[in-house]
Fold Oxidoreductase.
Amino acid sequence: MMKIYWTKINEIIDETAEIKTFLLDCPEDFDWEEGAHTHFALKGFNEGERPNRSLVRHMSISTLPSEKSIGITTRIRKDCSEFKSILRTYEHGQEVALFKTHSNVPLRREQKNIYLLSSGVGLATFRPLVLEYFNRPDGVKHVHSLNVDSGRQFLFTDLFKSSSEKKFTSQFVDNRVDYYREVEKLASDQDGLFYVVGSDEFLLQNIDLLRMNGIKANQIILDKHKRRVPEFLTF
């Protein structure tokens, strides 16, 4: 039977004007690894005969277990869904539910360069990967992050900053033209591993460009359930 973890919000961080991180208490037996996602649900989602799907969202966890909080980072625009409009009213101490937690994008330690390609708040998926890499860099040559956000609401700039000592580089761009120009340059590394997070349209555009530049399907890692990956990578 599926286990539902009810937990409380212990802090809300305004990352930018539209992006918030909700830090949740860790239930005793709740565990996860870098790159994990979870089903994040609001009160009332399971009170009827069937679950109210409008009160559930698939969210990445933007923290590591060592940080002692479960981080959910999301953009809440002025005009938003029912789910986001309710979540915007939530405060410290209110309860939310988590279930079906899994990681599709853990770090692959294969002595290769890793490229993290993301759009907007998709960077939240990569925050724990970067922290895990900093904590334990073995098996990874170098990590390069490239993020595009047309609103210039760049996330986690204190963490995502280049460091030759840590063998880490970070780029932020504010338009797709510059972004895809940079992706094409990165694809010159024919042995690299390319992680991609964003909308389905964003994934397909990146995959097309990477494949046109000689990157093989097994070098592209998507934050999708393995049964859905072929939809994107099969040509």
Observations:
- The radius of gyration is 18 Å.
- The chain has five helices and eleven strands.
- Residues 5-103 form a domain with the Elongation Factor Tu (Ef-tu); domain 3 fold (CATH 2.40.30.10).
- Residues 123-135 form the longest helix (13 residues).
